[in-house]
Design goal:
4 helices
């Protein structure tokens, strides 16, 4: 893995919520709006998997707090 490239990608993701047209995570919105639906568990599991993925990338990229960065 290329640490510089990983860091650049993670920093770009951090900037995303600052954009005025950013509407948040559609998967999280679905899980909240349809909490009783079986699909909401699929969304929650996907969120956990993605958070784990980004935490590992943040660790490789040298983040000071990979767990928070992954959120």
């Amino acid at each position: 893995m290329w640490p510089g490239r990983t860091r650049t990608r993670l920093l770009a993701l951090e900037e995303q919520p600052a954009r005025p047209d950013h509407r948040g995570c559609p998967q999280a919105a679905t899980a909240i709006e349809h909490a009783g639906h079986p699909a909401s568990e699929v969304v929650r599991r996907h969120k956990r998997e993605m958070t784990d993925f980004f935490q590992r990338r943040a660790e490789r990229g040298g983040a000071r707090d990979p767990e928070t960065s992954a959120q």
